[in-house]
Structures are given as structure tokens and as C-alpha cells.
Amino acid sequence: MKSFNAILGAVAAMSLVSIAAPASAEPIKNIVLVHGAWVDGSGWKAVYDILSKEGFHVTAVQEPETSFADDVTAAKRILDLQDGPTLLVGHSYGGSVITEAGVHPKVVGLVYVAAHAPDVGEDEGTLGKKWPSVLAKTEGAVEKTPDGFTYLKPSELPKLFAPDLPRAQAEFEARSQVLAAASVFTTPLTAAAWKTKPSWGIVAGNDQIINPDLERWYYERAKSKTIEIKGASHSVYESHPKEVAAVIADAARNAGN
């Protein structure tokens, strides 16, 4: 039979272990999804369904695309409604939005999905010229209204934005575009949340809207945990929702650690 002193020693040792080894952070439950230019939040439906079934509280922002400031404000408005720590996810131009809006105190991590991630003073339009995409080399693919709003030529969107989606789905997206003010692509950022918060990045290997090399450069600079989905188009969040949702879920489970 152990002596009383030996038992006390064992209890003390157990207490020291419990003090020295704090419990791991709880997984993030709130996820906010931010869409890119020319589309809306409905494109996140498949990703939303997967994450919701896994128990996450998921909300999609609907940006007006009337100005960069308006879109950042729309994202912050949704962040204000969250009840705790939140993971912020952005696709394409939505990456610029989350980079600026991600300084919000509730945001604990960022996920970039085939997305831009400029630094303070940078804008995605200028950076895109350094790494031209197929879109940039396709004359007449982007059209502009007399009052300065841009859209993808409907005949070009299925080929450039969503070549790996069912044709009918891509054509519907081409005819239901949210026109984006041209200024949203050239407004310099005033904050870069990836400098102070952990980030994850998804490279779409066959992206024709953003050059995949630019995506890789962004994520390397931000020290993002990065994966590449080979052969995926710019619509990777729609054509590969399981893979995209898996990255988001992993980020939510680890952003607080």
C-alpha cells in the first residue's frame, strides 16, 4: 500500500501537469463567406450546406459592388452580428474585401479562395497587371456601362469564369451578374488583416480570371497555409465545394490555436 506522502506527491504532480497544459482552443463556430465581383452570395450554397451540416454557423455577405468602401462596410455589418470569434472567407475580389474588413475584432482567421490579398496601399488591378490572367489577355471580355459599372460579356463568363460548371448553371450566372463599379478593382487598401491574423489559401490551378501564379505569390507573402486544387477554374468554390469546405473547416478548427 502506498504511503500517504507518496499519494500526496502523485496528486501534486497531476495538478502541475493540468496547470502546465492548458486546454486547446475551442473550434471557431462562426463562418462568414464573402463573394467576388460579378456574382452574389448564392454561389456559396454548396459550401454553406456542407459546413452547416458539420455544425458551423454560416452567413454569406451580399456586397452591393457599388464601391470598395460599400463592400467592406457590408462585410463588417455581418461581422457585427456574429456572437463570437469568426472565420472570414473571401473568393476572388472578396479577398480584397476580407483583407480590409478582417481587422474587425471578431475575426480570428482568414481563408482566401482563388482570391486577391493586397497589402496596404496596393490594389488588385495594379497587381493583376504584373501577373496577367487569361481574362486580361482576352480583348472585349469585360464590358462597362456608361456610368462606370463592369461585367463579364455573357458569352465569355462560361468559358473564363466557370468552365468546369454545368453549362446551364454557368449561363445562368452570366445572365444574373451583379455589375461591379470599376473603382472597386483600383481602390488601394488601408488595412491588411493577413499581417496579424492566420490565413489559409486555395489556389485554383486552372484559374483564368486571376493568374494562379498571383494567387501563389499572395499566399506565400501572407504565410498562408496553402493548397492547390489542380484543374479547378475560378469557380472552384462551386465546382469543388467539398475540397473548399474542408479547408474552411480545418481553418475554423485551428485558427484559435
From TrEMBL:
Q: Which residues form the AB hydrolase-1 domain?
A: 31-247
Which SUPFAM superfamilies does this entry report, sorted A to Z?
alpha/beta-Hydrolases
Q: Does the keyword Phosphoprotein apply?
A: no
Residues spanning the signal sequence: 1-25
- Keyword list, A-Z: Signal
Where exactly are the transmembrane stretches of this chain?
Answer: none
Q: Which Gene3D superfamilies match?
A: alpha/beta hydrolase (3.40.50.1820)
InterPro entries linked? AB_hydrolase_1 (IPR000073), AB_hydrolase_fold (IPR029058), Sec-Metab_Biosynth_Hydrolase (IPR052897)
Signal listed as a keyword: yes
- Name by which UniProt lists this protein: Pimeloyl-ACP methyl ester carboxylesterase
Per the UniProt record, the source organism is Hyphomicrobium facile
